[in-house]
Amino acid sequence: MTVGLGHFLALGAVLFSIGLYGALVKRNAIVILMSIELMFNAVNVTLVAFSRFITPTLLTGQVFAIFIITVAAAEAAVGLAIIISVYRHRETVDTGQFNLLKW
Amino acid sequence: MNDPVLAVAFYVMAAITILPALAVVLTRNIIHAAVFLVASFGGVAGIFVVLSADFLAAVQLLVYAGAIAVLIIFAIMLTQNASRGSQPNEQRWPALIISAAMLVVLLGVLFQTAWPTSALAPLETTTASLGNLLLNQYVLPFEVVSVLLVAAMIGAIVLSRED
Fold it and tell me: How does pLDDT run across A91-100, given as a tens digit for each residue?
């Protein structure tokens, strides 16, 4: 049973859909961030799979995945700082309660 | 990749990735969700090893499982008083339909496309080649990402100050 490009792409697609469901459904802002990190991981798996199967000697997909990991780390840091700052003022991280912009 | 050991490794690592990811979005306990997230990151690192991306697997464990997961757990601890855990909102069924539709479309497209796969063997060790690429061909994104990291650090420090 050979494992080909389709298997890895399917894994990336499933992981992305799971992350998408979590980002849409969850109320806690930190869990939404966790689901977004799942989506980033799915994209990384897809990129590295493409790099491995289509151009195995060029490492373009892996370089791109390194940049995505870096940017995801920066985004997680800033996002969690924002959540902590909001928690200090509003005493909650329930996104159902963040309704100041609601008309 | 017709090695049966690689096939078994792929399915094991895929299970370690997908099942904790499902648990992250389905559990009501936020600490459990954070621990399942770490397991999922470990599974993705295993997938990178199956794909012969050795340096990337190490970076995944260091940055994601080591730093981002710890950051998330810190944030959970700092906001623990107010959170009743990881509750779902009222849009479970529309979100399930949308995610399932997205999955079906993605799988349909990827299995219909004739990918131009190459039968070359991948590089054995990627670290030297990645370093070469990062400093020669991709030096501009490399420097820009450095500036981005400094900006993110300053932003995070300023945002979480007590004033």
Answer: 888 888 888 8
Q: Do B115 and A5 touch (CB under 8 A)?
A: yes
Q: Tell me the two tokens of residue B152.
A: 């993110």
Nearest to A62 by CA among A75, A38, A44, A74: A44
Residues B42, B30, B70, A35: what is their CA dihedral angle, to the nearest 10 degrees?
A: 60
Bridge partners, residue B88, by sequence: A26
Residues B47, B10 contacting (CB under 8 angstroms): yes
Give the mean model confidence (pLDDT) for residues A5-19. 96
Return the structure tokens found at B101. 């539709």
Minimal Cβ distance to B71: which of A5, A66, A76: A76
Percent of chain B topping pLDDT 70: 96
Chain B CB contacts of A78 below 8 Å: 152, 155-156, 159
Give yes or no for a contact between B79 and A87, defined as CB atoms under 8 angstroms apart: yes
**Which positions ≥6 away from B111 have C-beta within 8 Å?**
A6, A10
pLDDT interval class at B1 (50, 70, 90) = low
Radius of gyration of chain B (CA): 20
What pTM did the predictor assign?
A: 0.93
Structure tokens at B17: 């990735």
CB atoms within 10 A of CB A47: 22
pLDDT of residue A2: 84
Q: State the DSSP H helix or E strand holding residue B140, giving kind and residue range, or none if neither.
A: helix B139-159
Chain A residues lying within 8 Å of B86, measured CB to CB: 26-28, 31
Predicted ipTM of the assembly: 0.92
Cα end-to-end span (Å), chain B: 56
Chain A hits for B138, CB-CB cut-off 8 Å, are 63, 67
